[in-house]
Amino acid sequence: MKVLLVKDVYKLGRAGDVKKVADGYGRNYLLPQGLAVLATPGALSQVEHIRTQAAATRESLNQELSGVAAKLKDMVLAFPARAGETGKLYGSITPQMIAEAIKAKTGVELDRRQLDAQPIRTLGEHKVHVRLTVDLIPEVLVIVHREGETPELPGQAAEEPASEATSEEASEAVSEAATEPAVEEA
């Protein structure tokens, strides 16, 4: 069956494209959802109108969601989990759990279907793509670590020693300041 896409369809095409799809996919999903129409000669005459309209809609959506994409771009999520000696988890980290963690951290509500990820079943770092629009797909880093251990977050390992040294210097300065006035008064 040949259909004309009215809206962008993930993994199929953009609005205005003519695609050949399986009969059941077209009849049971694309046509009832309003994502496509049959590719008749009358519908094909409207291709340019559909493309320009979809391009304007896509551009406005990209502008709206660019702030959200910037928030998600460098996000690192850490999940503690129980795992065996080989690094295989006893459960899994699901896309729903990742979406809830993103909502808790940024306030951005995502549907689990917007995350391109299978359930994570091993320890380590995993990259998860978030499909906001056809063009905006930021990447989130998910770190799965053993329960009771602290995860090594990228960029944080270099910052921790500097912050510890700063806190040690500050505590030394406080203790020196506390002893100096006592010496001057006596």
Would you tell me the overall average pLDDT? 82
Described by the principal axes of the CA atoms, the overall outline is: elongated
Give the biggest sheet: 4 strands, mixed
Strand sequence of the main sheet, in spatial order?
4-9-8-6
Regions with pLDDT < 50 over 5+ consecutive residues? 157-186
Tags for this entry?
186 residues, alpha+beta, Ribosomal Protein L9, domain 1, Ribosomal Protein L9, domain 2, 3 domains, 4-stranded mixed β-sheet, 3-stranded antiparallel β-sheet, 9 strands, 23% strand, elongated, disordered C terminus
What would you say this structure looks like, in words?
Helix content is 45%, strand content 23%. Residues 157-186 have low confidence and may be disordered. The chain contains 5 helices and 9 strands, in the order ββαβααββαββββα. The protein has helices at 23-33, 41-44, 47-73, 95-106, 156-185, and strands at residues 2-5, 18-20, 36-38, 76-81, 88-93, 115-116, 120-122, 124-130, 139-146. The chain folds into 3 domains: 2-68, 3-Layer(aba) Sandwich (Ribosomal Protein L9, domain 1), CATH 3.40.5.10; 75-153, Ribosomal Protein L9, domain 2; 155-186. The strands form 3 sheets. A 4-stranded mixed beta sheet has the order 4-9-8-6, covered by helices on one side. The chain has a 3-stranded antiparallel beta sheet with strand order 2-1-3, covered by helices on one side. A two-stranded antiparallel sheet has the order 5-7. The radius of gyration is 26 Å and the shape is elongated. The protein starts with a strand and ends with a helix. It has 186 residues and is α+β, with helices and mostly antiparallel strands.
